[in-house]
Design goal:
Helices cover 37% and strands 10% of the residues. By secondary structure, it is of the alpha/beta class. The strands form two sheets. It has a two-stranded parallel ribbon. The C terminus is likely disordered.
């Protein structure tokens, strides 16, 4: 991610989801990586993220879709993504769900799903196998990973547990 040489913006609720359990190896590694690489990582505050952190501090459970709601808040807010779109610099939004759609999308805004991003990184030689990374995300079995961390991507064909079964010629 650091080799793309552009700002990498995370909304606060997504950052909180990624780093919510620091006793868990993945969460602490992600937090350390982001924190030591700020910039280019920028954590953007949202009303949703602020409210969810308050809930957590009060001992309540956050909403399951807080990250998605915060993304919508950030994208639709005048003081959210608009600040980044006013320049001529490209802006990329990396997300898990290929179903994210933005109306009146400016030409310098690029929507990139996780699967699409991984396939692109493989094409330019920054990773050796997108399928390998996707497989590990679908079936987390390495040390420090838990079964409940398994991801599901809407831009993989329905029922695919092994992206290699689709073949690397498939593109989202």
């Amino acid at each position: 991610m650091l080799q793309i040489e552009m700002k990498i913006v995370l909304v606060d609720a997504v950052y909180d989801e990624l780093t919510s359990d620091l006793s868990y190896l993945k969460d602490s590694e992600v937090k350390t990586f982001i924190d030591i690489n700020s910039p280019p990582f920028i954590i953007e505050a949202t009303d949703i993220g602020t409210a969810e952190r308050e809930k957590r501090r009060a001992g309540n459970k956050p909403k399951r879709n807080a990250g998605e709601l915060a993304m919508i808040d950030f994208i639709s807010s005048d003081d959210g993504i608009g600040r980044y779109l006013r320049s001529d610099e490209p802006v990329a939004i990396l997300f898990d769900d290929a179903g994210l759609r933005i109306f009146n999308k400016p030409p310098n805004l690029h929507l990139l799903s996780t699967v699409g991003f991984l396939r692109g990184l493989e094409q330019v030689g920054l990773i050796t196998s997108a399928d390998g990374v996707i497989h590990d995300m679908l079936q987390p079995s390495k040390p420090g990973r838990r079964p409940q961390d398994a991801r599901r991507f809407t831009d993989l064909p329905e029922g695919i547990d092994d992206p290699a079964a689709v073949g690397s010629s498939w593109k989202p």
